Structures are given as structure tokens and as C-alpha cells.
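Attaching the record inline, Q. Sequence:
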Amino acid sequence: MLWIQGKPASGKSTLIKHFREHIFPSDVPTESKKCIVADFFYSYRGGELEKSHTRMLQSLLYQILSQAGWLFDYFLEDYRALEGRHGPNFDWPDAVLKRILCSLATHMTSETFILYLIVDALDESNELDRASIIDIFRHISSITDSSCITKVLLASRPNVDIESILGRCHHIIKLQDENRADIDTFVSHYLKPIYEDLGFKVHEFLGAKEYIVNNSQGVFLWTNFVVQELASKARRGLSKREIRQVLESLPLELSGIYERIIGELLDENDDQEIKKSERIFQLVLFASRLLHVSLSIV
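Structure, as predicted:
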């Protein structure tokens, strides 16, 4: 089992997406082994349904069954029992869903397969029964005497409860400790030309870069905002001294950055621009579905 821990906007979901898109049968040791991938993303913004452990278990098991119909026997007995007691429109109890998942992990046949379970934003799940869910993942990923090789990938923000359970996990990636070099490269690429154009000396650029990298805490979104803000001020013709003041005045947390952005929007003198900003916030906050960027050529 691998646990990826990182602050908001540190790149957890991007890394998870990379794993998800690059798990192919070619990674499997032998041609006789099959590969099944199931994933789930918790989200408190989706209400109780998307924080639900029941929904997570149902989603994973549905994806498994849709890829490996030959595993239906592990569902059949419980399905018939529940249908017999409650009729065709019954709700699957958590205990049954957990038992089925564990039975898949202990599957014994002549044919071996690999099961990848990927669960993102674990910290946004319901706190109730979260420990039990994590224990199940830890249990099934530790089973060695089975035809099913189960590999579990979990991702979350820093969380005391999750830390208490997974703190001793042997396989853990803390993104804020691992992406410092990437942030350093990002800042150098975008900031160096700006400082050169303004006539900063090398040691002044290096000092600014060190300040940004040290205060980024592994958060790419904060880093990108700082670099874009400096670029914007430079294009307006600010002096070297003013650029330094801007850098040192920027908030060191994302919450402060968001407050600054909203404050600047409220300070706009153009009522039409304020109305446009309000509409954008309303679309993002109250949309009934996820928004996607659509590019069109007129």
C-alpha cells in the first residue's frame, strides 16, 4: 500500500492521475496475469453521497465486476440473500460490501491477476468508519497467499486521524518533501527572465527564488500565483525596490492569497467587471456538475 500525502494544490491528484493513466498490462510481470483498475475520488463538495464510504465501496466493486465478470460468483450469494429478504430494490450493507472486497483479495484460482485500488481525497471522506475502511485496505494489500495481488494507492491532505493510522506506513510519499526540486525549476524558468529584464543582479534573483521555494511548502498553486503576480507588477513598470516589497508582502498561505484576490476584485472601479466576477464565482460554487474548459474557434 502506498500513501501519498500533500497539502492542497501540492500535486496529489495530478500524481494520482499519472498513476491511473500509466497502469497498463505491460507493467504486469507475466502475460498470464490480468490487470484490474478501480478508482474513487471523495469530495465534500458533492454532499454526503460523495463523502460516503458505501458509495466508494460500491463504485470500486462495480468497476471490478465490469472489468472481470468472471468474479461474479463472489457477489452472487450475497446478492441472492439480500434480494430474497428485501426484494430487487435493496441497499447493499457496508458489512457485505467489505466482505466481498476482502473475498476478492483472497481469491484462489490457477490464474493470477493484479487488482489496483486508487482512492483520492481520503481526508474528505466521512470520519465515521474511516479507520475501518483504511484497515481493510491495509489488510487486503498485505495478503500474499492469494491469486489476487492487491495494490492500494491512497492520497490525502495532512490529517491527524489518517496520520494516526497510516503514520507508520512503510510506503509513503510526502509531496512537500519531494517536489522542492520541481518548484525550484519552475521558479527559475519563469522568474529568471523577469528579474533579468528588470536589471536585478544574480544574487538578488537567487535570493528571491530561495524565498519563494522555502515558503511554497510544496504548494504549486501558491508558487504559480507568486510568480504570476511578480510578472504582472514587472509589466506595469514597478521598480526593483517595489518588486521586492510586493514579494515580501504576499500571503504565505493559500487562504491569504484567495482573500487578496477577492479584495482586489472588490476594489475594482468597473461595475461590469465586478458583475462578471460575481457570475464566475456563482458558476463555480453552485454548479450542479463539474465544470470543464471548452475551447472553440469562432
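The CA atoms of residues 105 and 148 lie 5 Å apart. Residues 180-197 form the longest helix (18 residues).

More tomorrow.
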